[in-house]
């Protein structure tokens, strides 16, 4: 069977053939080469230049191996592989950087919905006339699933629960790849997990994905890795400041009626378009490009805020207009220009007193045949789910000359 050998920085040589190869060749999948997996994290971790393309291939590779380990049928295995390969197909520029903008400005184009539209052929996100063919490629093979099955699986809606869990669960192929890959390319040793062991201890039991009791340590190790990567990499305050600056540049452009198709673009195109706009967007892009970033004036933890203050900030987190208004008030108070003070939040759950525990809890199959939730079997899982957030809840940043004044006035301006 002819195919292609792809040399991956993590897994070495991977052979792709058939349907997977045809999907990899599509313009939509090739576009992912130009979208950085970790957004602007390369400004803090210079090695973090890996792309959604590599990660998607990595998730496919783990899905293929997991299918063999748990004994999926050929059709189910292929459905999981295609789902893993295409799970990020709808990502816009800089991956998660513009998350708040999708929510407020272009709801229908967040990466989950856009992914679904691409897989169902409703949209051609690329400038290539060969785009839009993913559904017909899937249908041209004689497997027992449709493009809609793939789209449903990616949204976590598949009727076979274990398939959904393998792509969106406590221990899933997406997470396994990004933890290993992100740790490798950032050089942060926290993300190292025992992939070989994990693949051996996952099982299907009563229609659910479970972990064998013998494999609890491997799952605990993965959860520790995930928790530390969140605080050390994904929510590093300097990364958040850079992302906040670029987000403000794009918000400014959208408010002026520009760049409404940003979600189609790749990373470098967004930067070029924003820079062409002059004014605040151009200045922000130049600052990001040459790493002349704003400085953190405030890094407050949830414990430092009263319940009332948390409520106020949660409202600002949920409402872009409210956040923009607070930023303007802070800028006025310290004599800065609009856009020179940014307010960022870590995960909103942190703002509430009790982080919401994820519902996709993986179960443990005990030696006596009983099944128990992971948190019942290991106290570490509970502790880690609570720790999943970084030490700061609220971040206020600005050019360094405004930092001392901001530290004095921020509480009064926001909460009075």
Spans of at least 5 consecutive residues with low confidence: 352-360
Task: Output the strand order for the largest sheet.
Answer: 3-4-7-8
Q: What is the H-and-E element order?
A: EEHHHHHHHHHHHEEHHHHEHHEEEHHEH
CATH fold name of the largest domain: Hypothetical protein af1432
State the helix count. 20
Instruction: Give the CATH H-level superfamily of the largest domain.
Output: Hypothetical protein af1432
Radius of gyration, CA atoms, in whole angstroms: 22 Å
Count of the domains: 2
| Largest sheet features | 4 strands, mixed
Distance between the termini: 70 Å
Q: What is the CATH class designation of the largest domain?
A: Mainly Alpha
Description of the molecule:
This protein has 416 residues and is α+β, with helices and mostly antiparallel strands. It contains 20 helices and nine strands. The chain folds into two domains: 232 residues, Hypothetical protein af1432 (Orthogonal Bundle); 122 residues, no CATH class. Helices cover 51% and strands 10% of the residues. It has a four-stranded mixed β-sheet with strand order 3-4-7-8. A three-stranded antiparallel β-sheet has the order 5-9-6, sandwiched between helices. Helix 3 packs across helix 10, helix 6 runs antiparallel to helix 8 and helix 16 crosses helix 17. The radius of gyration is 22 Å and the shape is globular. Pfam families: HD, HD_assoc_2.
């Amino acid at each position: 069977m002819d195919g292609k050998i792809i040399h991956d920085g993590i897994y070495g040589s991977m052979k792709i053939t058939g349907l997977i190869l045809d999907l990899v060749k599509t313009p939509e999948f090739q576009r992912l080469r130009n979208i950085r997996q970790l957004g602007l994290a390369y400004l803090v971790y210079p090695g973090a230049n890996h792309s959604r393309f590599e990660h998607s291939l990595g998730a496919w590779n783990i899905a293929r191996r997991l299918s063999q380990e748990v004994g999926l049928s050929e059709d189910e295995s292929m459905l999981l592989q295609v789902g893993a390969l295409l799970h990020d197909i709808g990502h816009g520029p800089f991956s998660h950087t513009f998350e708040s903008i999708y929510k407020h400005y272009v709801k229908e184009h967040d990466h989950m919905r856009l992914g679904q539209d691409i897989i169902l052929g409703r949209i051609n996100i690329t400038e290539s006339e060969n785009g839009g063919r993913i559904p017909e490629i899937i249908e041209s093979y004689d497997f027992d699933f449709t493009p809609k099955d793939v789209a449903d699986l990616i949204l976590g809606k598949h009727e076979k629960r274990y398939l959904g869990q393998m792509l969106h669960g406590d221990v899933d192929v997406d997470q396994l790849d990004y933890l290993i890959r992100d740790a490798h390319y950032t050089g942060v040793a926290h993300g190292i997990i025992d992939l070989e062991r994990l693949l051996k201890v996952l099982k299907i039991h009563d229609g659910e994905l479970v972990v064998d009791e013998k494999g609890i340590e491997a799952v605990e190790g993965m959860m520790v890795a995930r928790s530390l990567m969140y605080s050390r990499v994904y929510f590093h305050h300097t990364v958040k400041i850079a992302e906040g600056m670029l987000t403000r540049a794009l918000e400014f452009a959208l408010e002026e009626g520009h760049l409404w198709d940003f979600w189609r673009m790749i990373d470098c195109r967004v930067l070029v378009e924003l820079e062409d706009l002059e004014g605040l967007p151009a200045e922000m892009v130049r600052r990001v490009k040459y790493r002349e970033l704003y400085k953190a004036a405030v890094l407050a933890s949830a414990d430092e805020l009263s319940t009332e203050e948390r409520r106020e900030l949660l409202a600002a987190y949920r409402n872009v207009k409210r956040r923009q208004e607070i930023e303007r008030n802070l800028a006025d108070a310290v004599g800065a220009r609009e856009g020179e003070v940014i307010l960022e939040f870590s995960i909103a759950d942190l703002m509430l007193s009790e982080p919401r525990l994820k519902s996709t809890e993986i179960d443990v199959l005990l030696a006596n045949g009983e099944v128990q939730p992971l948190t019942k079997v290991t106290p570490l899982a509970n502790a880690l789910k609570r720790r999943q957030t970084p030490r700061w809840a609220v971040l206020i940043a600005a050019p360094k000359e405004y930092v001392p004044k901001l530290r004095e006035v921020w509480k009064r301006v926001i909460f009075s």
